[in-house]
Amino acid sequence: MLFACRHPKSITINNYASDPTFQVLLKDTIPSDYFENMNGYECDKYLALPHGLKWKHPDKMEKLVELYNLHALDHAYWTDLDLYLRVCSGANDFANALKRVNLDAIADDSLRILYSDFIDAFIKVLKNGDEKYVNTTDDGTDYIEFYGPEVDVSDEAYSKIRNYYYEHSIDFPDSGTFSPDSLSPKRWLPDVYTTYVGENAEPTEVQLNDLRERMVIEKDFDTKLTLVFSMLGSINDEYDFQTIAEESMTAGIYSPMLDMVWRAYRVASHRVIFGHSTWSLIPNRQFNYYRRIIAYTMLRYIDDHPDDMAALTKFLYHTYRNDIMRFGEYSYGNQSSIEMYHLFWNEDIF
Asked: Per DSSP, what are the bridge partners of residue 146?
């Protein structure tokens, strides 16, 4: 039986009260039957940010909104393709989801046309039926091959999109302009990080209870998120970690820890609830619901602090991060295990 997760019907964030368009977007909810339907293709329900919000630096911020929306659509498409490879059926359902994709979130006319061409080309591939096979390269990497001549059209259309990305991408700031250590949780609570996070950390129940109590009373937001991050890296039972994690992600307050808490939330959700199998339920729409809220919090902060290169770097990484996929670098289950390794054992703060 699937674990029934709690989902907010709506979220009110006082910080965003001046942005009615975004308030409307926040009313998007996760379908009640989502957790009962593993096989639903959802690329037509990707969660974008609205254009035309009021910014202090509109040119820069609109470009960042566009970048976020492009990747939101891209993540949704690849995640649906990933599901298609797992279930090995449902080509028509996938094609119909692609047909319903709304490209209005892409402001650039040229890129919107490129995406439309790509979707049309890929639908032609899917209309060939479910005739496909997964091949494996010498280094163990799986890749997909479709029968039929239309695959060349699809590849060509998608390569144009990738080229556009490269030509119009926003470069990462030079890391020499800030210290990566300034973004690490070790900066705020090195003792807590050492105790609760890492390959060798095995906190006792007494320690975890102490950690939970400290999370509730902590006033400093950066420190609170470090505690939340530590808890998410340590929890192994069905303790209701979701409430405090979701409250932290929707607080509307910027912290360099936001992206790490979001990543840890995805990892904890799979370790405690959904599992690490390629057949597990992977609620990327739920995860991306919070990804978008965090992205907006980051953008508001960047608009107020345009010279904070570390904040821009965190936003770009948060935007680019892949959904949790079923297939990839890790061959023995879904890719939440890889995320867990990089986040907690390899100390990959980016």
From this structure: 132
Residue 40 has pLDDT above 70, yes or no: no
Please state which of the ranges 23-27, 62-66, 178-182 shows the lowest mean pLDDT: 23-27
**What does the block give as tokens for 147?**
């029968």
Check residue 94 and give its pLDDT: 81
Decide the pairing of beta strands 142-146 and 132-136: antiparallel
C-alpha span between 103 and 120 (Å, rounded): 13
Tell me, what DSSP letter sits at residue 196? Answer: H
pLDDT at 91: 77
- Long-range pairs for 126-130: beta carbons < 8 A, 24 or more residues apart: 126/91, 126/92, 126/94, 126/95, 126/98, 127/91, 127/95, 128/91, 129/91, 130/88, 130/89, 130/90, 130/91
CA distances from 53 to 27, 216, 315, 322 (A): 17, 34, 18, 26
Helix (H, G, I), strand (E, B) or coil at 42: coil
* DSSP-derived secondary structure letter, 133: E
- Residue 13, Cβ density class (10 Å: 0-12 exposed, 13-18 middle, ≥19 buried): middle
What value does the mean pLDDT of the chain take? 75
Exposure letters 98-136 (e unless 16+ CB within 10 A, then b): beebeeebbeeeebeebbebbbebbbbbbeeeeebeeee
Instruction: State the amino acid at position 160 in one-letter form.
Output: K
pLDDT digits (tens, 9 = 90+) for 176-188: 676 767 777 777 7
- Residue with more model confidence, 165 or 253: 253
